[in-house]
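Inputs:
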Amino acid sequence: MKKFIPSQIFIEKDALKYKLTHEIIEKFKNNNIPIFEENFKKTFKKLNEQQFFAISKKTLILSVNKNKKLETCKPSADYQFSLVSGCPGICEYCYLQTKHACSPYIKVYVNIDEILDNIQKYIDNNRPKITTFELSSISDPISVEHITGSVKKTIEFFSTQTYGKLRLVTKFTNIDSLLNINHNNNTKIRFSINTDYIINTFEHNTSSLEERIESAYKILSSGYNTGFIIAPIIVYEGWKKDYENLFSYMKRKLEEFKNKEISFELIQFRFTLKSKDIILKRFPKTKLNLNENERLKKWGPYGYYKYVYQKEISNELKKYFYEKIKKYFPNSKIEYFT
Ligand code: SF4
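Outputs:
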């Protein structure tokens, strides 16, 4: 797929002090992309939900991340931090619809050195234990890596750490700049994958399955630790056949790495009433099954009830995925099924 190019850039006042802001302006100065030193939300406050969402997904905001207190990130890592929030992808089920409903734009944090200084403090305070960090909890940072170069810088920072490890996940393929750098095995790059039906129906503006697997091949060839997140696992007519085709395709493409331990993280589809409401406003014709009466109601960690598959379906999914992964990737490790 084509690399994301914003249709407009907004710069917050504080961001003007940072080098990355000026590097990004320089990159786009000949592209006729309007650049504003204004507040994006105020500028477009009169738009309705759908119009605001559509324009946000094409807008890049340069900002400063002042958050020094990191949130925990179980089961993926000890903490999460962000170089970016939001993403140009338009996945109908994206959990950011709940968490960042009012801010669907792509915000790039330009104070990368300060962000990494803060990470260093967390690592040092926890020595001699190893501290792990997730980079993709509120964004897909690879989606704009061709604009920021921040993931590369962060991987190089972690390559010098004895007690810090980095994890990130993506549905995009802007990974070429990460291939020939020293990562020192301290970064794990996972790919979020799914069946062609799910990608084509729900994951608009993201890379295709073929492109993601091709990127996984390159990342494995560069010696990174790699894994796959299958999320959301969705039950639909023909799901078993489609997921089996997915595993068989991956096995063929990644045969060369069959002795390497590849990890899998498995997350079933879930929704909250808040996300349902937002999804139906933004995607009125969605094919996602959002009927809470067919689901099990469970208390979620973010203070909302979530609706998950009924126990029998969930058990069937778990059994199916464990069997297929063992069959196609016998040396792999399933980190969790949730
Ligand atoms: S790529 Fe990830 S972060 Fe971006 S919209 Fe899709 S699920 Fe959300």
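Remarks. The chain has twelve helices and 17 strands. The longest strand covers residues 225-233.
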